[in-house]
Structures are given as C-alpha cells and as structure tokens.
Write a structure and sequence with these properties.
The chain is α/β, with parallel strands linked by helices and 212 residues long. Helix content is 33%, strand content 25%. The strands form two sheets. A seven-stranded mixed beta sheet has the order 3-2-1-4-5-10-9, with helices on both faces. It binds S-adenosylmethionine.
Amino acid sequence: MFDPKEYWERCFAGLDDGTYDVSIIGPADACIAYCDRFLGHGSKILDLGCGACNNAQYMAQRGFDVYGIDFSHKAIDFCRRRFNALTLSGDFRTGSLDAIPFPHSFFDSVVSLAVMDHVTLATAAATCREIKRVLTTTGTVLFTFAPFPVDNKIIDEAEVLPDGTMKFIYGVQKGMLFRQYSDSEIRYLLQGFTIAEFTHTDHGTRIIIARP
Ligand SMILES: C[S@@+](CC[C@H](N)C(=O)[O-])C[C@H]1O[C@@H](n2cnc3c(N)ncnc32)[C@H](O)[C@@H]1O
C-alpha cells in the first residue's frame, strides 16, 4: 500500500515526451560541472536512478555513451520514447539500484543525483557496493544528497523506520522514502571510496565526487 516504487510510478505517470521540456527541468548544475571537469570524450556513463532522463539527455547530447537504470517502468518507458524522438542513443533498463544489471568494471562514470535520499540505509550501502563493482578502477561517481536537516513539517507527515529513514504516510508523497544524512554519515556510507570532492551548494545540497 505504501510501496516506494508505486510512489515513483505515480510521479512519472503523467510524463509526455512530446511536451516535457528538459531545458526547464534539468540538467542539474552539479551534473554539468562534473561532465566538464571529470569526463573524457565518449565516456561510458550510468545514470543510476535516472528518473525522467533530464540529466541523461544532457549527457547524451554532449556525446557521452549513456545508460540509465530506474525501478520505475513509467520513467524508463518515457526515457526510451524521449531518446527515440530526439534520435539520441541511450540504453535504459528497469532495475534496482542495489542490483545493477551490468558486469564488473563496465562504466567510466556513475551519476546518482537526488537518489540516495530516497532509499533505506541498507539499500544505500548495497548501492555503493554495486557502484564500486561496475566502475573501472579509474572511474568516478557523482552523488548528490539533499540538505540536512529538513524542517519538521515534513517529519510530521512521515513515520520513522528503525534505521532512521522516513516513510511518508500522508499527503501527496505517501509511500516515498526520504533519508536525511549528516556529512559524517555520508562519509561513513562512502568509506569504500576515495572522496575527491565534498562540497555544499548555497542551498545545502551536498555534492560528492568519489573514486573506487
Ligand atoms: C528524486 S528522483 C531523481 C531522478 C533523477 N536522478 C534526477 O535527478 O532528476 C529519484 C529517482 O530514484 C528512483 N529510485 C528510487 N529508489 C530506487 C530503487 N530502489 N531502485 C531504482 N530506482 C530507484 C526513482 O524512481 C526516481 O526516478
């Protein structure tokens, strides 16, 4: 009844590839800066939790070799239709963050934008192991994490799971998971990586670039 996947399917249900305007919705500034500074021409990139492909589209248009995974069938259908309509090349698959359907050392880069905020701690830890597995030894990963802490109004709409993750039980976000990480929790989560950069935007979003 409060399945997080159903929440995301509801979010993506109304997407129309004919009217969706990627120039308004995205890409994220962090993604643009990361592409400029960390990726070589033709890099093979996995957009993990790609949603409506606002970042994947940008990266494909820049000439990168783009793959996307999301557990929302509606999101993945939309990404495929959108890439077809724009005659862009991309490989989009439904799948879970913590079981990436690609072999070891397959990607030069993984980007996971606004995704780790929406899973439990156990899934986040398993996802980090999977990212490490699919990256080449010289690869990089870009994460964003929501600002910390958020206001109490949000907490009022959610129940807190034993690991501290919030699960929304009221309102339009019913079913959504939301986990707040302190900076030290993020560093602990990413202990299997070498952190190359850890910065905060003016709004408090944490942007992390790490190497396996
Ligand atoms: C806030 S959206 C971010 C989408 C996209 N990265 C962006 O920046 O626009 C979070 C995405 O994570 C996906 N997601 C959440 N939990 C997931 C899981 N366990 N496995 C796969 N995808 C998941 C959702 O379907 C959704 O597309």
